[in-house]
Design brief:
By secondary structure, the chain is of the alpha+beta class. The protein has three domains: 10-74; 92-143; 147-224, no CATH class. The protein has helices at residues 19-30, 58-68, 85-88, 97-100, 124-130, 175-186; strands at residues 10-14, 34-38, 52-56, 72-73, 92-96, 106-110, 119-121, 139-143, 147-148, 150-157, 160-169, 213-214, 233-236. It has a five-stranded mixed β-sheet with strand order 2-1-3-13-4, sandwiched between helices. The protein has a four-stranded antiparallel β-sheet with strand order 5-8-6-7. The radius of gyration is 19 Å and the shape is globular.
Length: 243
């Protein structure tokens, strides 16, 4: 696959060193774009919004969105609710914080990121202590506790899975990891801000074996592939109807 051209575009990233971010910046520069490392991101230089691409943590991207008038290109906070259960291999439901207190033990995380720590809570007292000060109607995601052996991050460009790497846990990467990630990409029409159709799970995929590591948040375990972008966001001002 030919690397996409970034000529005429501006990538805005933090000035703090980060291996993943630096690799992205190098690729962006090789494509012809200009990389800007911002320290005072709350007071950015003036750019034509149509040329701006932003990559970084939530606070970095959201502040630049407000300052530069950008449109966010990021997965919806409730994306997991729209993923077919065959990919999740567990039940995930939306509840209020009050309702969640009656369903424990369970994994509970806020729909709005960072309101409290997503974790397995064993008792109402434990969850109440963590969520002290939040309104009773705070929206949360509730899932049955699971264990994971490994988590794999897939690297995707223009709808193609270019590579995959384990970023937590251990295990052997197989071609099925990429096939699973590709099926999620092709079958993304039923998720928010996406445009294709879900494929059925290939019949040759075996059932998952036992897992060994407690899950810290509700993530799919089929083939160890994470079907959602992690909380580090990418933003593009040129997408009026982002995928």
């Amino acid at each position: 696959m030919t690397a996409p051209s970034t000529t005429g575009l501006n990538l805005l990233i933090s000035d703090k060193p980060d291996i993943e971010r630096d690799a992205l910046a190098d690729a962006f520069a090789r494509g012809g774009g200009e990389v800007h490392r911002l320290g005072r991101f709350w007071d950015p230089p003036v750019f034509d919004p149509a040329t701006v691409r932003v990559y970084g943590a939530d606070s970095f991207c959201l502040v630049l969105q407000q300052k530069l008038g950008l449109a966010l290109c990021s997965p919806a906070d409730d994306l997991l609710l729209h993923v077919p259960s065959r990919f999740l291999q567990r039940q995930i439901v939306r509840r209020t914080l009050t309702d969640a207190l009656t369903t424990l033990p369970a994994f509970v995380k806020p729909v709005t990121p960072k309101q409290f720590r997503g974790a397995v809570y064993s008792s109402p007292e434990e969850l109440s202590a963590e969520c002290r000060g939040l309104p009773p109607d705070t929206a949360v995601l509730v899932a049955e506790p699971v264990t994971l052996t490994a988590e794999v991050r897939s690297f995707v460009v223009e709808g193609q899975v270019l590579d995959a790497a384990i970023y937590e846990g251990s295990g052997a990467l197989e071609s099925s990891s990429r096939r699973f990630a590709m099926s999620l990409l092709i079958g993304s029409e039923n998720t928010p801000n996406s445009r294709s159709a879900w494929l059925p799970q290939p019949p040759e995929w075996p059932a998952e074996g036992p897992a060994s590591r407690p899950a810290s948040e509700p993530r799919p375990i089929s083939r160890g592939v994470h079907p959602i972008v992690n909380r580090r966001r990418s933003h593009s001002s040129s997408e009026t109807n982002p995928k």
